[in-house]
Amino acid sequence: MTTETRSLDSFNCRRELQANGKTYAYFDLKEAEKNGLDGVSGLPFSLKVLLENLLRHEDGRSVTKDDIQAMADWAKERRSSHEIAFRPARVLMQDFTGVPAVVDLAAMRDAMSALGGDPEKINPLAPVDLVIDHSVMVDYFGTPTSFKRNVEREYERNGERYTFLKWGQDAFDNFRVVPPGTGICHQVNLEYLGRTVWTKDVSENGETVSYAFPDTLVGTDSHTTMINGLSVLGWGVGGIEAEAAMLGQPISMVIPEVIGFKLTGKLNEGVTATDLVLTVTQMLRQKGVVGKFVEFYGPGLGNLSLEDQATISNMAPEYGATCGFFPVDNDTLNYLKATGRGDDVIALVEAYAKAQGMFRTADTPDPAFTDALELDLGDVVPSLAGPKRPQDRVAMTDASTDFARVMESEFNRADDIASRYDVKGENYDLGHGDIVIAAITSCTNTSNPNVLIAAGLLARNAIEKGLEVKPWVKTSLAPGSQVVTDYLERAGLQDDLDKLGFDLVGYGCTTCIGNSGPLPEHISEAIRDNDIVACSVLSGNRNFEGRINPDVKANYLASPPLVVAYALAGSMQIDLAKDPLGEDKTGKPVYLKDIWPQSKEIAELVRSTVTDQMFRERYGDVFKGDETWQTIAVTGGLTYNWDTSSTYVQHPPFFENMAKEPKAVNDVENARVMGLFLDSITTDHISPAGAIKKDSPAGQYLVEHGVDVVDFNSYGSRRGNHEVMMRGTFANIRIKNQMVEGVEGGYTIHYPSGEQMAIYDAAMRYQDEGVPLVVFAGKEYGTGSSRDWAAKGTRLLGVRAVIAQSFERIHRSNLVGMGVLPLQFQDGQGWQELGLKGDETVNIKGLDALEPRATVTAEIAFADGRVESVPLICRIDTLDELDYYRNGGILHYVLRNLARAA
């Protein structure tokens, strides 16, 4: 229980609500409308959540009456430039991004002590749940012992990290850890943590008052948006933003535009929710919704399950929106009941949503949107997306011909598309387009019983026909929760999946985040020796180049049943609509249509096998963990006892020599160019992710510290060690720095020497020379996940400013949060138009007098002596962000404020 002092209720709307015999205080939107907020009943449901948040937190300082009035103004104009302060109810983390966040909190406690303050003040004020789901790798597959062996390997690799997290669970209040082997954070959030309506006991005037309000959150994973399918407003933020939210800082944001997405009709037979979400992703990318809310409405919602909605919400980062929101309706209540939530929760959700005008029915008037688009569900067809972007949807009927196009346009290999190459020691060969990874993975689809049951039924039908998975395919099943195993086993379908090699490999984000594990050596060797364009098909949400596996160049997203089908086919060159997958026991060709399950059969099996008891049992003691987790020993204490020999967790340098008051920001003078990049450079290109190569700067560091190559683990698992992470920043094997012609990977040219070297090595050399750095880029700089280290690593490499044509929302914010200046070209100008080669120097002056969105000038001195002044937009968007930048970062700002209050 917390104590709060409230003095403002400008719109006189605090009321009481009864639900299941209990009384709750709440801020009534209908009363607020009567008392001056004209038109807010017509707001999109997602903005009603923001409006309630402002009403409840009005204090005259961070939230004013004018801020609240701006929401009513939005209802008239359907857009706004007004900045508001949003306070989420809670924070969600996964371990890749969560570990560095906890590392930073531990370092902040040390810094607080150094500043003479109380380290216990560094403590989460909002509830924090961290789910360990990103560390399991698919080392073992296709056997009944795969899961057990992968978990054992996970603990071997990550013992130091897990010990640190257990310390954090004991040391910090309001901080819980869901142990390894439980599930994916988004699916655990959907099935257990999320409530749709949150409650909080507050002490007011000596009495305890229970407040009810919409469940909201931010998460350190971009796919936090999945929970919007349960009518919980939330989105992904960087670890630094999440830490600030934990420490009581509001998230500054401009009231967003809201794009309505109207759904009509219903899906046809044989079409899955995955096909729908790939279609939605393509449409919204073409529409352009970066930085905007998307809200779904229309009669088609009545023909989608809540799991279908969550599938669509999950992929909001792929279609570029801040979130993809679905309002509360009867399906929300049914899902809460079906997943074992208590009667009090369900009764409160229904009563609250109806009282607030947040409950959707078939008769609900359409909200007022900034803009809208529409899709008839009957127009959706079976689809994939690839070979390297989620929005590049291709109809299944066109997939084989599109791969032929890709071989020419992407890989310049059209001439030998039919070539086959021997695989050493095997009785088969390998060719372009062959599928070497088929993975049912990720929160996107494993939260949806319909597509998993469909995959199991397709496997059963294939086995009955005598079909087998091609021998070069690495198969895996990594569900988002243990409940999936329960219903697959109850339906008898896990045995069928096992027979095709889709044995359980772990409960976590595996292939989708690059934890696909190594391919068998003979496969990997054949691919490397012959430069084969090998493929993966996965049921995930990310297929960026270089992400899935270093041996795989073309990656396709697809539904779980299509993953199984392509594993049977073995190649993207096979047309699943026309070509046989194989032959039955009599030699007769078998086509996909012969084994595809019927929707009625899928629905009946879902109804008979998925029960609320499964959810209650699996989540009854979710924080306990297995025997291995329970035996991890930690020592208590307010501050962490750092192990200087650890290669997983190290004290970060962000707060070294920090004073209580910030110094004036220095101008950027005589900076060198670290990189020239084209459009769509993702945070996967920037941030260290996937496997660590022995000959990379990070690999060399680990070898020097006595780590065997077999124990390198992934970059993600070592996010708590800045020495590893800064060496891996801009080191993706597929990144292309245009300064280094014809070379892929993290390389640059050091000037004035003209030497080509690894970006990390050049950055360290520049630091020794006292030379600051800048980065130039094109459009959509910083899309994707893995975000915190994309900004942290950039700062540690000595980059003072990133100059791009446009930024992804979170990465731009994170750059500011780390004290790196984001600057944007004006009027479509870019570094290519300027004729930059990378040997220029750059001056940016007047930084001590910056204002949000102000125009600043970069003076670029060319090698031939020319100097050109280029106007740029300062993408520090708010006054709060300006404070963060002037302090050297958001955590420095928070720490100084807490130290002053001590």
UniProtKB/TrEMBL annotation:
Gene3D superfamilies: 6.10.190.10, Aconitase, domain 3, Aconitase, domain 4
Signal peptide: none
Enzyme class: lyase
Pfam families xref list: Aconitase, Aconitase_C
Start and end residues of each Aconitase/3-isopropylmalate dehydratase large subunit alpha/beta/alpha domain: 76-570
GO biological process, alphabetically ordered: tricarboxylic acid cycle
Origin superkingdom: Bacteria
Domain (Aconitase A/isopropylmalate dehydratase small subunit swivel): residue spans on this chain: 700-827
Molecular functions per Gene Ontology: 2-methylisocitrate dehydratase activity; 4 iron, 4 sulfur cluster binding; aconitate hydratase activity; metal ion binding; RNA binding
Keyword Transmembrane helix: no
Keyword terms, alphabetized: 4Fe-4S, Iron, Iron-sulfur, Lyase, Metal-binding, RNA-binding, Tricarboxylic acid cycle
Cofactor dependence: [4Fe-4S] cluster
Pathway: Carbohydrate metabolism; tricarboxylic acid cycle; isocitrate from oxaloacetate: step 2/2; Organic acid metabolism; propanoate degradation
Complexes and interactors: Monomer.
Stated family: Belongs to the aconitase/IPM isomerase family.
PANTHER family xrefs: ACONITASE/IRON-RESPONSIVE ELEMENT FAMILY MEMBER
Name recorded for this polypeptide: Aconitate hydratase
Gene this protein is translated from: acnA
